[in-house]
Amino acid sequence: MSGADAGIFDHYHKxxxxxxxxxxxxxxxxxxxxxxxxxxxxPSLRAxxxxxxxxxxxxxxxxxxxxxxxxxxxxxxxxxGEEAGTVVADDTPSPERHALAQDRLRLVLELVExxxxxxxxxxxxxxxxxxxxxxxxxxxxxxRGAVEKQLxxxxxxxxxxxxxxxxxx
Length: 169
Prior knowledge:
Elements: H1 3-23, H2 27-47, H3 53-75, H4 95-113, H5 117-127, H6 133-140, H7 144-168
Helix pairs in contact: 1-2, 1-3, 2-3, 5-7, 6-7
């Protein structure tokens, strides 16, 4: 910082910090705004194009305070914690939901075991191993259409059996 910069800084810093502190509810945020004000104002102050340095500094600071408020309003719905004044919901399944899902999975796996062997293998390769229809077709030496037919059959059988079970329960 040059001597002229230090003189301007010494002359206006306390009043600028007090002004920003009166506009912002957080001392750390106020300190950041004051620092940013100096960073933005120094080039113009050095160039000698500013007639009233105090008014210029206050205007730069006020603009930064307004920018901060606008940003906070924009991001408030996505912020968590005390700053946002909200609590993030815990979407972890309850123990009951977890147990029900485990039972449902066990039931689906049992129903898959009841599928015809080739249909079961194709379904397992697609749904459990993540192979696409072309890879399965190449592995079995059949067409993609035949693979899709087996998958469709498996899904229809599983859906029908699960529907029967849900209606009975």
